[in-house]
Hints:
Elements: H1 2-8, H2 15-25, H3 32-48, H4 53-69, H5 73-90, H6 97-110, H7 114-122, H8 124-128, H9 142-153, H10 158-167, H11 171-182, H12 190-196, H13 202-211, H14 217-230, H15 234-248, H16 269-279, H17 282-295, H18 299-309, H19 322-334, H20 336-349, H21 360-373, H22 378-385, H23 403-411, H24 415-432
Helix pairs in contact: 2-4, 3-4, 4-5, 6-7, 6-9, 6-23, 6-24, 9-11, 10-11, 11-13, 12-14, 13-14, 17-18, 17-19, 18-19, 19-20, 20-21, 21-23, 23-24
Amino acid sequence: ESDLRCAAESPFWLDELWIDLLSERRHRLLTPEAAAFLFAREKASLDADQTEFNERADAAVKLATFAADNGLADEAAKELAHAYACLLGYGWRKDIYVFEVLEALELMLAAGDADARDWLVEIAGPVEQILGYTDGRETRHAPPEYHRLLLDYRPDKVAGCFEALVEDGDWDWSERLLRDYAKRTLSETPAGEALLSTFVTAAERRTLFKAASPARPHAAAAAKAVLVRSGTTRDAERRAAREEARRDSSSPGRKRKLPDFRRYPPGELDAFLAALRRRFLVGEGLTAWLDYWNDAGQGDAALADLDRATSGPDLYFFASDALDRAAEIALDRHGRSRAFDWLVRAQIVRNGWGEWFSSGGETRKRLDFVATHFRRRWEEFLRKTAKPVFGTPREGSITVGYAKLVYFLLQVGETDRAKACTRAMIDIFLEEVAAQPIRKPEWA
Length: 444
């Protein structure tokens, strides 16, 4: 042990390298005391720094192997459990789960839940430090989203959060927070005016000039001060903003023409779909076809043809909003029972509970329809739409949303259930990052 301690004082010594070599070759070269010393050093280093979950799991497995080979059975078991925790925390695309948590929290905050305000502060550390334990490619927008919620629902924490961002050198996030602050009436104070008067970048000035109005005199005064200091005019700023918008905008492509609906009456939907596929217009074309023949007095026949054509998985995602439109038509023509069946099919086919398969606006519109016309059947809707697509194998045996489920529960008046789901989501999020040394921000 004394020899190892002496060697470890060298600037060329690397604990991790020795753990790697000894865990790979599986030779016991150290005394029990020396092994315990080396294990403790590497364990302390691992516990002190955040690392990406896959790298952390790899390091924990090597440390567990080294401990087991050197008679440190308890330590080996703990590190193996640490590796398991990292695997569960990492998973497949698990890092973007943070956006589900933030969306669910925002829904509860908007509903006026008092506990949600404390929950928002509770997750400050894991969200703000998310780039420390993920690769950041899909999570770098989580902190700005979190700061936006702070501005709207915990303004008492914003100043401390902004100060911490500046001290840590997180310039991008601090500047975004400052621009978002300028957009809100929260900045309508003498102190806010003084702060907004320091805006110098083009993005900051554009934000300030949009906020300045007779209804916001402090923002208007700050904008005037910025114009005087910069030696420019409001017209020049407007021209610059228009020019940037022109450069950023992409020219819209030429709109493709739909086939003539009159050539494809009900009963000829398969041929119409073939024509749509050739033009890559299945989504919008199918809905337009349904509306055309419903307006022509053949709504029942059109619904029957659509029912036949979408009874299998072939149209899976491309049915688009035609199934939702079918529910509206069925409600008008046949009443609630037929409309409910179309809504169930639309939610399944469009993978409505999934966060990344269909837009939130589309799903919310459908869930609002259910809440308006079928509130008493909300549990039945949930059970039926949790099934895989048409009974075919899909990842997992059921599909139930996270934030979208919270939204649905709120819409049908199940506030307590929505709150319980949100709390469960937060607990899962915190448990999955528990293997990381995440510090609680001082401002929180």
